[in-house]
Predict the 3D structure of the following.
Amino acid sequence: MILYAVLKSLLMPPGIILLMLLAAFWLARGVLARLFIFTALSLLALMSLPLVGTALMQPLEIHPAIGPDPSSVPPEARAIVILGAGVRKRAPEYGGDTLDDASLRRVRYGAFLHRATGLPVYVTGGSLPGEQSAVAWLMADVLEFEHGVAVAAIEPASRTTWENAAFMAPLLDQDGVTHVLLVSDAWHLPQAVEAFERAGIEVIPAPTAFAHHPGWARELSYRDWLPSANAFQVSYSAIHEHLGRVWYQIRRLTAESPDVADGSSPVATPDQG
């Protein structure tokens, strides 16, 4: 069984690519060529290890899970805000755009929290260039038709985390909501919490989709040392978030709210088109 897992890991990408780079390193002539190949080989190998991906995620996932018990939700919470992630464009099985996996898991957890607490649900997320559907509208559809959860308000214009906060703040303010459960992936919440608090919203983090768990380093197995495509994706997301946090720190030196030109945005309630 172990031999099968090792062979499968090495013969499937990224393992096979690592073997090809290793062969290229030995066949290459010249110090510079070998240096570039060795660097690419090392980076790809490290990013493809589950051990490395989890280690990169751990410092981002600082907010603990709320837990399944409704009594564990702080009583000051007055609403649930779900941050959108992305869209799967032109999904043939749905006849159009639908939510990507990240948005779906956030929606699922937001619906879970709603059933546990009865708190109203708000969704936020716009569309990127080339996309037809705002992720917030798709989230509202999934919440209503698949989970039976009515959405209190939809913010369909934001394209960044900081815009999520800036454009959602007026909707929450007009409903008298000052404390929210903020739902997003665990690794994304540190940046999201900071953005919403800077917009004047009191946040109770509600993380989902953890990449690590307490004591994970003591439970390592041989699989954590085998390259996998999933581990590469985890490493990519972690590096992207680390670099994004550095970028926002730089932007805050020159702008009060990064990526937000002003405090206004078109917003909608569920009965508005």
Remarks:
- DSSP finds nine helices and seven strands in the chain.
- The first helix runs from residue 2 to 11.
- The longest strand covers residues 179-185.
- Residues 137 and 146 are 14 Å apart (CA to CA).
